[in-house]
Batch of 2 targets.
Target 1
Amino acid sequence: MPGVASDTAINGGALIPFSDDTDHSLPVYPLNHGLTAPISRLAISWSHGNSLRVSIFAAEPSRSSDSQSCGGKVLEVKLGGGDPEITDAYLRRIAYGSVSPFALLQSRRSEVSALLKAPSPYQLDWWEHVLEYSKEITSLLGGPKLSPCAIIEDPNEIVKKGEEPTCLKAAWELMEIFYADKQSQAWLPERLVEWLAGYDSLFTSTQETIHGKLVNFQKDLVNIQVIEDDPRYWEAMSSALSVGWLDIVVKMLRLHGSYQLDQLSNRELENGLVEAVAVLISKMPRLRPESPAGNLGECFKSKPDFTKAWERWRSQITKLDCSPFWIQCDNHQTREGLRNMLQIMLGKTENLSKATCYWLELYISHFLYIRPFTMGMESMYNLAQKCIQLKPPSSTHRLTGLMIGIIGENTEVVLAECSREFGPWMVAHAIELLTAGSEHAEILLHDENYNLGGISIVELHRLVYAQVLSSHALTWQIAPIYLTACMKQGMGLLENLLYRQPVQHNDLLLKNIEICRLYELDNISSNIMKVAGVYHWKHGHKGAGVFWLQQAQDATRLNRIAQQLFDSVGKSISDESFKQWEGVIELLGSESKPAGGLEFLHKYRDFKKSLQQVSGGKSSDAARQATVSLIMLMKNPSTPQRFWLPLLYDSLKLLNWKDGPLLNVCETNLLLNKVEELSLAKLRPDFIEPNVPGEAIRSIRLALATNLGRAILEE
Amino acid sequence: MAKELLSFNNDTTCSSWNYSSTRLASGSTDGSLSIFDFIHPSSSSSLRSSFNSKIHEGPIVKVVWVPPEYGDAVACVTADGIVSLWEEVAHDSQPLQWKNFKIFRCGLSKVLDVQFGSLTTLKMVAAYSDGHVRVYELLDPLELKNWQLQAEFQNVVESVSAFGKALCLSASISWNPQKGGSQEPNFIIGFNSNTAELNSSKVWEFDQAHQRWLPVAELALPEDKGDQVYAVAWAPNIGRSYETIAVATHKGLGIWNLGLNPDHDGRLPLERVALLSGHEGMVWQMEWDMSGMTLATTGHDGMVRLWQSNLNGVWHQQAALEPTS
């Protein structure tokens, strides 16, 4: 059991990590609308993802002052504001970059699970995959940049200016060190030393730091005449030494006045002492595989080797400390400064405490000079508590909060800190590191939780992150990657997300349909196409409308469209609308048989076409063709009875053809019979009065009779 | 943090976004309806008016979009309780225009709220000032003019209960936002009236076998049944084994979990998991986000409040937005 979550965890269980809800008081954010009149009402609506749109309506429009006054505003608020340190564009770059490492890790997870036939990928070399993932993310958060100063060596430059580090990267690396990088567990303290060296500057925002001290000293360096007489020189060096920045210390030592050529002869002894300390510093044994090229200190991989070297080194320091030369050194500042540094190297708590600025630096100095073998989380945690007691923090930095959570082995706190301080991207991705960390965390984070609606904490944070992604037009399309990694509710959210995408633009529509196809969301896909079909149909793009409705296989609406086409039968319609009408029939017909009565519509279209040609010129061929179509229509049982009269009425011209009868006796009789049938049908109650002039039937009869007479004569 | 999208004309009283949050409809006291569209549809830049016309003599109090499967259309509820349906269409190679397709009126009683639900057919539930609920059904999926009254009932559990003439000030309807699926259509409705029996919010479900609407749950504790309901909101369910519904009364904001499987009486098991206070008075509107995890509310105190459940299932107010000039 994870146990009862601490207060912080409850607070941090927030789904939307608002930036500064560190205390329990409710965060209230101002919504600046700039309206002068008082507000009468608000209306709210969720847009995509986490963006909320608020309509604000003014109460009494101030008609008197100016007619231009505004009756209200619509504001859009993006909730779950990100890291203030990181710009939106940069965050988007990170979001895009982290997709492929995340997806790769997920696919590996399912491979491993399939192999083990167990859901837990913990064990084996799983952490190696996680580490690889972590490294890729780290490189995304900004790689080390070779500063130009490293090429052109400036003897006075103490602190190198590299790429500005970010808290996000520092936090990520911290989690990598503790959770993912199992290989380096043996030299964890050294990794922390390295970590602080890279990120100490970040703490300058909330407290004094050694980095800040060095930067300030460097600024004044040009104005200092005799460097070794300045107490700040010694202070800066002992501070840098206390956290193990050996290169900086040695470089600073070499700025000592006794090294200057004109001074060398009369300050031989002093210079010898300075150099001795410098040599000792540069020979400091370190328990780590190797240090970055050129860094000082001697590295030892194995503990016994290290212990041996450490003992020897310490004895050398003690020897130098007890050396009679100190008495002979007449420069007080140098003597005291150097001996203080020796005390630091000998691990005197008092000196370390004085040299460091805040508890984390003191903590790191303990690893270097007092307890290089500190192992196990419990002793690390106790040590941290001790350091915090010695140097109580005036304010908490977000990185120290995370650090305490990690060494306190409190997964909930770590998650809460990540979520609150670094936002949804961090949690969704760092949770992979956490679960690789321990079986306990794995169980806690993957357990399905009734309170969360039956999902695990891992899934919850992925959903939250996906929702953040879907708030922006440029990132919503990567949300499905995270949603499909959610077993239980990811698909549901993806469906909602896709359903809410606009359909007016074909490229976006096609993209959405592609996503549906990819994840087998046929239901949503057909719904999207239905919406698109209706949109186009109603907005005058009949062709596109029919096309999308056919894609959606929406038989109901297609049938309705076919029914609407019937309405045009027998009516005189303009060339333009006939063309459109004809086009729709063509489209409807291209599918096998989505709508009834299409056969009739096709034949009717052929008939209507030749009839138009007839009225255009006097071509007998066209008239003959039209007649053939007419007979076919009248013979066909699929031709609805209600269209007989309009059809015949339309054909009056054919029946009265001047150049001779177009119908033979048999055909004429067929039509006469139909007219007879119509007269009978008129008596039935369900008869629909066709939209033709009253005398139509009489003129048709007359025309048919004339035609019959002429046909008999011809035959 | 907040970005301005639009300034309304004087007299604007209500607004509503369509399904994709790309179009905004607004109504005014002078009876005009306006539609706004984004200038660049892909980015949420600024909006411009694409339609504005006086459609009614009296004020418009509510605008509701019709589901997109039935076109780009809105229902406007006026202060005198009439509902008119307006749709953007292009007929026979004429340019696009907004046209009125249907007007719903009902004698002396006024429509207080309407909401559309769409499963197999489009249904419109309307709540009336006399406490009646009417469900209309669209007959032709391509034409918004042909509607049929499918059912009419009062928002009471026992249909035999007798009470005097009801007078309702407001009502709130929320459909179960499920899409597709095999579930029967259902919605929740609550009234703010002088008649206790009508008030409490009840879930109504369509019984296919008997072709009638049945109350399957009453979202009020026994002692709260007469409480006037200000607003209801049914949360989207992306995979929970229960539904979540928010109900606002003068006692506060109730969050209810509703089981999916009815008991032998046909009632759905339910539990009030939270009663939250914040707005101190009338709640105007409640909206769930797309995951159903965050509830946004507005009310008489002029604030927007956001509510969430934490990892332990405890609901609480997460943040508030305060309009300032």
Target 2
Amino acid sequence: MKGKSFSKMTWVAGVPALLMIFSACGDSGTGGTGSGELQVTTWGEDYIENNIPASAFEDGYSVKYAKFMIVLGNIKIADHSGDVGATMSGQKVFDMTLKGPHQVQDFKNIGAKRWDRVSIEVKPAGADTQAGNDIDAKDLALMKDNGYSFYVQGEMTKGQSSKTFSWGFSLSTEYKECQRAPEDGGEVGVSVPDGGTAVLQFTIHGDHLFYDDLASPDAVLRGDAIFSSDKDQDGKITMDELDSVDLSSLPENEYGTGGAPDVYTLADFVKALSRTVVHFQGEGHCHSHVED
Amino acid sequence: MLPKTSMVTLNINLVLFVLLMPVGRGETKTVSNSTPPVLKKFVKAEYPRSAVQDKVEGTVILELHVDKEGKVSRAIVIESVRDDVDRAAIEAARRFRFQPAMVKGIPVGSVVRYESSFVLPRDNKQTGERKKQRKKKTIGYGKAEAAGNTGKPKPGSDSDSIAEFTQVVKGRRPPRAASDWRIEVSGRLDPGTVSPGRLLAMAPGLHVAQHGGVGKAQRIFLRGFDAVHGQDLEINVEGIPVNEVSNIHAHGYADLNYLIPEVISSMRVIEGAYDPRQGDFAVAGSVWIDLGLKHRGLTAKAGGGSFGRARALIAWGPRGEPDATFAAAEYARGDGFGPARSWNRAAAIGQYVLKISPGTNLKLLATSYTGRFASAGVVKEEDYDNGIQGFYDTYDPHQGGLSVRHQAMAAVEHESNGSRAELAFHAGYRELRLRHDFTGFIFEYRPIDNPKERGRHLGDLTEQYQEGLTLGGYGSYAKEVRFRGGTYALEAGFRFRHDRADQSQKRLRAVDQEPYWDEIEAKLAVTDIGLYLDAEARPSSWLRIRGGVRFDTLSYIVNEPMEYYGKGNRRDAQGVHIGPKATLEFVPGHGLSVFLCYGNGFRSPYGIALSQGERTPFVTVHAGELGLRWRLGDWLDVSAAGFFTHVAEDLVFDHATGRYLYSGATSRAGTTVSAKLRPLDWLYAFLSGSYAYSVLDETGKLLPYTVPITFRAGMGVKRNLTVLWGHELSISARLIADVIGPRPLPYSEETNTVFLLSADFGLTWGDLELSAEAFNLLDTKWRDDEFAYVSNFHNNQETPSLVPDRHFTAGRPITIMAYLTWHVF
Amino acid sequence: MPGANRYRSHNLVLLSFFSLTCLFQTSCGDTGEQRTSFKMAVSAPDDMGTDFENDLGWKVVLDSASVVIGPIYFFSGEPLFSMSRLLDWLDPIPTAFAHPGHYVAGEALGQVLDQARIDLLSEMPQVLGTATGVTGLYNSARVYLKPAGDDTYSVLVTGTATKDQDHVSFKGELDVEIKLEGLPCGIHVEPGKAGGMVMFVDPRIWLKRVDFSTLAGPDQDGYMFFEKGTSNHSAFSRGVDNAGAFSFSWK
């Protein structure tokens, strides 16, 4: 009988196979399979590289940093489903007073997609910690020997008087789920374009050490309490001297501790503030997690 | 001239409103003042020897496509007997010659239904050796008498079928899946008026809510998808896309309110994404609407009803022109069923089909619409329970909107023996302003430059504004060939659209509705160019294979000038999506069809959420289905399908903040069942139900806001009563019951189950028609839409409630409308 | 991409399974969290007696300690610092902050809108009210201490403090509204969980850094009091502000 030119078996077997092939090649999802480059940088901005001018302070002080060293490490670029795009496991010390931005890590071949779980750690320098930018060998040794994660040295000035300070912090903090500021779009993480380069910057805000409140969004910069803590009048403000200033001796509307437990002295206060200097892409922030 | 037993019957176009016919896309209009095809040359089929030996007999039902020249271009087996017998019937039928059908003297293509009976010789009926065939008229409406030898219908034998047959302008495309329905709309005897939203809701499994007032796009639910205002349902009208790409209020916003229901001739609903012609937003499925005015002459219609509703309509279909040529204009208004619900709108649609040459038509379409409406917003469930807020009350009477749409299209269609081509271009302008207040006083004002104002709650009334232009076009070429006894068709086509939009979102002060905060300002330029290839093979009568692939290139330029302190944030992205689709249809016979389908579709992303250089600016959808279709004559049509859909990165719309969130991959599985019965020619019934189970892949939790269960049942009558004072008097009535099962809400709660009863009634006497429709006959207090989120309407800053609470929008109470329609000439 | 093909084998099977078992139950799965309510009680920590010694060597005996609390809100946002273990009064842990004002509360999960005066020296925890909300991880809390009803104060504490030869009968009173943000909570409220939440308020922390020798007074009732503007008032007020005075537990 005419018409039976295609055997039924061929169709029954062949068509599902065709469907499989088609479905496989159609699956492109939203992740993309391209790749690009991600540069992770850090920058201290004008406040650290130059100075914090008196106009920024509520009480007319100005601050110039001679050294502003921070240990950055353990960078992880991942997405919310757990896929890890790239990591940097070691630690690097950066002196933010040097002209930046400074490159922390350059991930040359990272998947071209949105990475919305970006994290970084600030931890005490260890034996393996390296210099991130052109810091002095002695400064690197200072960080390692003392186990500092963060160290500042500078000068506070008001009018004719000025005092120096040098403070080292050994706190460990993890900064995760970094997100841009709402006025910059509020983007969570970073998006790497296919065949292109994206830049991710951990911006260090040098003025945070001088805020006068731990919780209020209307905190301002103040210098008086810190300046006046120099008990022995030797022109150097030490961490111990800060620790001798009980917050209760300061005006009640200043140095509010918000919802923070056990912040009693000016040293406690500045230490708490030291964890807040790391920002993301300018004004953005990350969730900070205490590790020590 | 013709043997006594050679009858040709006419395919009766089922003119009733809710009778769903799976005949695929194409324009099927019924025309009056036309003549059916007449059989000129009849060829007797040869009874295959193998069939005689096997004692196989039966009636093969064929659908014959008669072209403008009277030749049979296609013969499709509707009901099969056996391979060899079917082939014999087809071979003979293909050699028939007709005088083609005519519309006002112009030959047109048509479809006829033909039954070829093969009866084995019986001792007392026929002589031994010669095979006999007997052709009889098809069973329709219970009338079995023959219509005469000449192939013309007997006048007055069936009032519904007087000179009615299907006129084919575009080629017919068979259904793609078991859940591929065509809803015939326009009909002289249909009562009442139907809004586009309720029209959509006629498709099985499709549920529509109207929470924003008459004038806002409907909220659509289908197959476990909360398509919001259209993000998962592709809607085209005459090929022009209705969905707005990246609309400021909702992605894929599909405002159907510009359509005048009386000029909708049919609607094809494809659930699933199995057709390569389906493009952006076809995640849950597509709806393709064709326009046409069935009644020729001038029609005037006016009516009114509950809550100050009034509507006036004028429609004109020039006699002698096809149904696709018409002009219509309407004005409608209403006070609304509660405070802050008034609305009014005006719309005009005109379409003109010009015959350029035999087989070639030029179609010109223009539409214009403006509608303004007030919206009552939500009521907090707690406030209603405590008697603080009435069921129909509003917290903020300043909500509402204005929607404007103007568009024009020019299309050329050409059909010749075995091939079909079309080319169209369209351009549209659209403006939308919406004001809504879902939360009261939650938004905290934090101006950077004015610390004193920080933390204040000035009111959450949000204004969203969008203005834009859409340019687009489409074209295709299809050809059918016969090869070695099988039929094969190939179609290639393209669709493109370019959308430009300026959009903004601001917060308005509660005291004086002045803007105090600019939340979003964006400009978009979006392009989507799609190419598709579609092939169909019918190697034997029991198997149909359809497959195709669609390529789409999407590109975006997004600019947000306010970001980065005024420096602006401009970004671009482009990507390609490849979407294969395939359908296998097995036709074992006895009116049965089994479908196995797979489709890979996509949805464009929300423009503002895009980042620079995204390589794949779209979301991939995988859909699969196994379905069954069973048709017995004209009186039974049953379909059942089980489906599965996976979306790679789904969008969840947060009404409270007006933001889109990518929720992650989602999966849905379910079934849809529908049945249509027509036990008597004047009585019909239908029921349909759907169930869908939808989860978020990452957590396995149920997706909130989807509709797991819908059920609809209805019955109707349509009958000529008598002839009164020289004019025919006929009546039609219909009763529909809808059940919408409890929908999951966030926090593991459920909405209330909704039960609604609606009815239509119509009385036609000559050129006059009196119709009435009642919605929500039982006047139940029902919740149209329910949400769970945080709100603070009483500006209670002392101890405000900050946890999410349930909110609802009130559904319409009993609404009755009555109309008088006069077919002037 | 590794994740993309997961759904084919894994989720497809799971989904079919769920579909079959859930065929006739629309709420077979859940959409995430559920609405819940539970009792909210407040008390002083279990280990508190009525006498203790503060940081400046004063031995203090409390006669009364009451606070007007309410409303309380619980949020999904992590507190201004995340702790690896709950705060332990005996072993204070250094604090950390993300940024002044950058505490992101996130979604409000639960709330107690009642206000009541709580006697912290009472034996049993006192019920503040019923908390309503949804289940989930209550990461942080916002607590208001403010005068309400007949009470003109938000915090009131009386007692005696002794150091060497000095014996002071004192009264500490604040009448301002105090809002404490981002207090660490970390309690996972589960559906159907029996019991309720207890917030511990430790009045000893309020007086931790107070030097009772320089109080003002005596006032008409014979108490020495904290005068506004003095460092003692500041120490007391900062003590009340100290998040270390608050902790949460489920009982």
